[in-house]
Task: structure prediction
Amino acid sequence: MDRRELLVGGAGALLVTPVSAGTAAARSENADGFPMPAPERNLPTRLPQSDPSRTLLELGWRFHEGDIPVSEPKGHNETYMSVKAGNAPGAAAIAYDDSDWPDVRLPHDWAAAQPFVETANVSQGYRPRGIGWYRRTLRLDPGDRGKAIELHFDGIATNATIWVNGSLVAHNWSGYNSVHVDLTPFARFGDETNIIAVRVDANAKEGWWYEGAGLYRHAWLVRRAPVAIVSDGVHCDPRQAPDGRWRVPVTATLANIERGVAAVTVEATLLDPTGREIATGRTEATVPTLDRVETEVILDAGSPALWSVEKPTLHTVRTRVLRDGLAVDERRIAIGFRSVRFDADKGLFVNDAPVKLKGVCLHQDHAGVGVAIPDALLAWRLERLKAMGCNAIRMSHNAPTAELLDHCDRMGFLVMDENRIFNPAPEFLAQLEWLVRRDRNHPSIILWSVFNEEPMQGTEAGVEMVRRMSAAVRRLDHSRPVTAAMNGSFYNPANVSSVVDVMGFNYYQGDYDKFHRLNPTKPITSSEDTSAFETRGAFATDSAGHVITSYDTEAASWGGTHRDTWKEIAARPFVAGGFVWTGFDYHGEPTPHDWPTISSFFGILDLCGFPKTAFDIHSAHWIDDRPVVAIAPHWTWRGREGEPIKVFVASNAETVELRLNGRDLGVQQVDRIMGNEWTVPYAPGRIEARAMRGGKVVAVAVHETAGAPVALRLTPARSVMAGDDEDAQPITIHAVDARGRHVPTANLMTRFTIEGATLLGVGNGDPNSHESEQFAGPAGTRSLFNGLAQMILRAGNGRGRITVRATAEGLKPATLAIDRADIAPRPQIAPSPPAVMQVRDWQRSAAFAERPDPALAPADGDNNSWDVIRSGQPTPAEARSVWRLYRARVTPWKRIAAEGGVIRFAALGGRAELWIDGTRVAVKDAAATGPMRATIAPGAGPRTIVLLVEAPAAQPSGILGPVGIAPR
Ligand code: GAL
Result:
């Protein structure tokens, strides 16, 4: 039996044990009170590679926290040069010395390692974000010459400026959309490496929640055939024809970087879930040079298996570009066949069957890792939501990580995909268009939301803005309705509800009926609701201590408790469903408190994904296909013997019987929405809720009073990890009593060490904890909070074993072994840190018949008499022998400045003298091409390198190969 399915845990300690009819016995052996599913022995689902021309570019990055000011150029020449292509100054410069910057691996959220600081922004979780720089050296294989080369950042928090080889290639003002940089015109190949520099301004805010800082999503290098499908260039749009058959129009956008027009064939093939071909089609296309063309193939899918929440069947559309019969490019897009319809009276229909949206709003944030959530952890979070019957996610309030949507497709979630910035000006409209273009193939997405709670929602300007934004969405996808999440102004003469397809209510539940009455043809959903507060594992509110009870009694004034809110939504068929604010806690927005509280209380699960009572409440509301029963609170209340304790039971059965130590405390008719309550004088022992249907016990929840903690325990989500250097999972740390029962009241400090994996971060779900969430090495600490703490591990490489050891004072230590399976890592572009400092750019004088003075230099203000050349670029032959000067100004890397270095010319043509800072340091006597080297003395600051070359007649001369300065 799959325990994960059956254990719907919350409230610090509970158990749900379906009992098959006839075997009404309680499972007392499971009464250890541990609220998380038992570990499984399975590997994470690796998402299929949709674009084989993309390779991860996540290793070999160097990071600098803080800004790096650019010094003012000196004189006219320096100013003139500083604004030229390839010559970006400061840390964007090719030659900038980043050798003492630490290496980081992407995804990377530097704010997650920051301390909590009272003067930092409350909404962003009191973590200073600041400005940071990333640099990476990239070696491109000479075999990649001629390919279309792109750099993809899936998300950068927040404002980013990107340079390649000293040229500014992109600025991006959005923490949530991806940045695609066409590297092709800037690319260098072989040993002449490329330098990518990114300045990230994370002081910029786009939200009122923790947004992280840095290159926090995946980064890719794309290398494609010169005639190929552009990025996000395939649109598959399954439609059911009136005859009932499904057709898939497949549109592919192609680009051509060759010098001539290209004739290609585009082939689209529909594959069923087993990979069998169902339909295929081809079309011919002529792609103009440096331009784009759109092609269409319509596939007849017949009557395929449908995609639904219960059975999310995915098909694949494989699109290929063929040249001379050979496939030169390919994309694989997962698609699902499903229809979606919002009815103004009856709500949502998927495949013509009614579906109530049992949804949650999510921010991308998790304990320990911040916004840089590994793919496997994203999937784990969705599994937790699925386990409570959740079927819908609102990506609040921004474009999510692409992989999150892939997991939603695979797991059967319905998604409201939301745009971040409400603004139809071209830059922001482009962000919305990017969102639709990237996401429109996902069967999970059923709604586009153009905004969340905008003060202009009730104005004429707001209406005009939404009209333009909806039109932009429809140009790219007219299969899905557009919504906007409104929080008021519903009845203004001008308000955006008149121009969206589905009205989205944030809160304002009291207006559902009135709005429906006044707008009887407008479909409605709650786009956001609830905003209730709970501290996980706490059952009394302590306002001074910023602790909030988990009995589902406290909520924001604009929201409602979990139960009251769902009651309103469930009662109205015309409300398509709801999206609870929020599925998980997140850093920042510590409402209703502030400092020292640093994270939210809204989550159904806490920041670590540990369930609160709200989890049980929603399980009872939302799960129809299996019995649910859960008890709050836990039953470990030493010192409160005889005192009345409120016992809350959530269930979806018909009746529930409560027993304490075998004594019957009464049977109640289940109130599936509001739950059932008993007041029970506390006596240690065993409290048991027996859920019944038709007079038979169908599920039992038990808590037993735990004794003092005697040992630590480590419980992973999975007992095996992929040894692919990428798989990640949470490990729960908790304490048990002498009988192995989870102790829900333990708040001990724990220490741990890890081998065979990387410790990405830690947490415990306490919104008031200021303990560090990240550690530099393989060891960390974290106190248990109401019995639980969590560490997040990333598996190392190859088959092996991960070992975690945890200790706490006075307790028996715990050791956990996790197998690391032999799974090949996804390919990564190898890091290529430069061993030598390259000298690439030179000024070259005119030719002289006589040996010129090596001190000769262009006059300041003279931009024209000297050529600018690159190392390796030969000076053409002259009929007679001539003299020339080559000048470069370089600032040696710090190590060279400190210890001295060696400058090496790989190939010099002609006789030559090398002068550094006015001193001759080397001579090359032979005219034939050959190398040259000289030592460079230690010393800080810029150096002037002058090469005096006497070119032999009729021969190319000068700097014929690379020039490098190596540390000594
Ligand atoms: C809403 C808002 C959310 C969050 C929530 C807290 O108004 O859309 O982002 O701030 O309130 O209750």
The longest strand covers residues 291-302. Residues 354-622 form a domain with the TIM Barrel fold (CATH 3.20.20.80). The chain has six domains: 17-45+629-704, 59-217, 228-235+239-335, 354-622, 711-821, 837-967. Residues 460-476 form the longest helix (17 residues).
